[in-house]
Amino acid sequence: MKRHLAWYAEKGPEGLVFVGEKGAPFRRTSFGRKWRRARAVVGLPDGFRFYDLRHTGHTLSARSGATLKDTMVRAGQSSEKAALIYQHSDEERQREVAAGLDDLVRAERAKWHTDDPAHHSEEAAEG
């Protein structure tokens, strides 16, 4: 991405990331041709749309630990509803979440099986 920005994008914070051959914004027709070619080069399936990158970005951002607000800022969104539309969860992520919960429960149970009297007094107070 850094190389693309340095070599091809307009300079400055308001510069376009993707610029046509003549320095103007892509037209829909020329962008479509370039997207199909780029998609083929990197091995993405034919049905993968440019817009799907937004979903991927949101999902990976959330998986990295970003908060909803972090994700909204990165995507330039002001609506939580809009941001949530782009976040997805798959079976792999659900397994990761389940494993994390399992680790927390096991760690907590291990605390209760120690000889620490503080845990036993808490247990008696609750019972």
TrEMBL record:
| Coiled-coil intervals | none
Q: Name one GO biological process term.
A: DNA integration
Q: Which residues form the Tyr recombinase domain?
A: 1-99
Kindly give the InterPro entries that the UniProt entry links to this protein.
DNA_brk_join_enz, Integrase-like_cat_sf, Integrase_catalytic
- Which segments carry the region annotation Disordered? 108-127
Name the domain of life.
Answer: Bacteria
Cite the entry's keywords alphabetically: DNA recombination
* Molecular function, one GO term: DNA binding
UniProt-recorded name of the protein: Phage integrase
Please name the source species: Streptomyces azureus
